# Entry
Amino acid sequence: MRIAVGSDHAGYALKTLIVEHLAAAGHEVLDLGTDTAEVSVDYPEFGHAVGAAVADGRAERGVCVCGTGIGIGIAANKVPGIRAAVVHDSTTATLARRHNDANVVCLGERTTGPAEAIDAIDAFFTTEFEGGRHQRRIDQISRFDSGATEASLSSDNPERQQPTS
Ligand code: RB5
# Structure
């Protein structure tokens, strides 16, 4: 798979580990920087770059790393078509794929240890989207990318009387 990867200085060491891990697993990695932990940079540049690479097809999915994964994920999510999920472990990474069809995974070097981060990466890149009721919700999110200003109402959901999850 072609994977775009980006970080700020606070995520550089974990990004380096992830790039090596993905390449060793046979993925084609597009490393969009930053190139050192020694120079402070601003995470919006790198989050947006990863999101743009996924949205325009240069990459199928993306990985973002900053101190917490939060700021860089917010920036990636500003790109239409991007569903960037901050994850902390393999459980949240798995659910981000199964339920949210996330196309960008975000990790925090200051909040998730390297072994757990690699477990999360492996889960993210081996888990399929479940579709079904989750597809309807993804379609609702996608409508915002097309300019919708109001959400669909849950009361319009024909399945709403059934147990939900
Ligand atoms: C940089 O100090 C830090 O704020 C950044 O990496 C990230 O954690 C922001 O969300």
About this structure: The mean pLDDT is 95.
